[in-house]
Amino acid sequence: MNPQANTTAPAIEFRNVFLSFDDHLVLNDVSFSLAQGEMIVLTGISGSGKSVLLRLGMGLLRPDSGQIFVEGQEIEKLTEPQLIDIRGRMMGMVFQEDSLFTGLTVYENAAYRLEEHGWTEEQIERAVTEVLQFVGLEGEEEKFPEELSGGMKRRLEIARALIGWPRIMLFDEPTMSLDPLAANKVLDLIIRARDVNHVSSLYVTKKIYEIDYLSQYSANTTGSGEVTIAEAPPTRLPRIRVLVLDAGKIVFEGTAQDFAKSEIPPIKELLTLDRHDHSHDPDFADPWDKRRRPAETIL
């Protein structure tokens, strides 16, 4: 029998988590909790442990010690089939790397997770239509990834992670390889999922301006059902916290406003690294790299 989630518990909780690779300590006594409907932005310089933390949260890695809970369930105590069930029903992840299947169409890429979890053809068609409309890819169903722009590929990655509307989303630098215009479209989709669909989310980034945008803008639904993204009034800011990792330890936890005013060295280093023109120096890995994640990591 599949374990039942406790939606009154935190969406994700880490308790005193340690993880090492060989002799290198990657996460050092990490503890935090992501509340239901909340967004946590996780930042820090490269190599600080951000991506590893997300993979632990998905159960793709196991900690050396400590406990990790997803909606009250300690994932260390779950069997692999139970973990797969949790990922399929409750969680979605957008990886840093391009993980689309090049031999599948837009429709087939979006439908992949649901097919793996036994949805009917009619249920899948309805869900794919809804999520492709959400990310603005309706009408592109028969195209292959190589026919899409970089921004469209990222939106398809998000569509595949969001299909079925999981309650928890993990984003690993989802705008890293995008130009500023495409990046803003992706950020707006993430804000819509957070504010309209009440998705709890962990969002990894090294781009300071993204922290400002995600903490200052919100999505609202008009009386006619249209969703708009606008600057939030000071009294109705989004539920968002910032965590800073440095050498595997959480060295800051607080609001985006407190983050902006902090004088601690790891934040100063981040601010120094981020002082460049993103439109001319977007700071991303080779966009022509065609490597793909192994199929077993696409959940």
- Poorly predicted ranges (pLDDT <50, ≥5 residues)? 276-299
How would you classify the helix and strand content by structural class?
A: alpha/beta
What fraction of residues sit in β-strands? 15-25%
Strands, total number: 12
Shape: globular
Residue-averaged pLDDT, rounded?
87
Can you tell me the CATH topology?
Rossmann fold
- Within CATH, the superfamily carries the name P-loop containing nucleotide triphosphate hydrolases
Biggest sheet statistics: 6 strands, mixed
The total of helices stands at 9
The arrangement of helices and strands along the chain is: EEEHEEHEHHHEHEHEEEEHH
Helix content: 25-40%
CATH domain class: Alpha Beta
CATH architecture: 3-Layer(aba) Sandwich
What would you report as the Rg, rounded to the nearest angstrom?
19 Å
Strand order of the largest sheet: 6-7-8-3-11-12
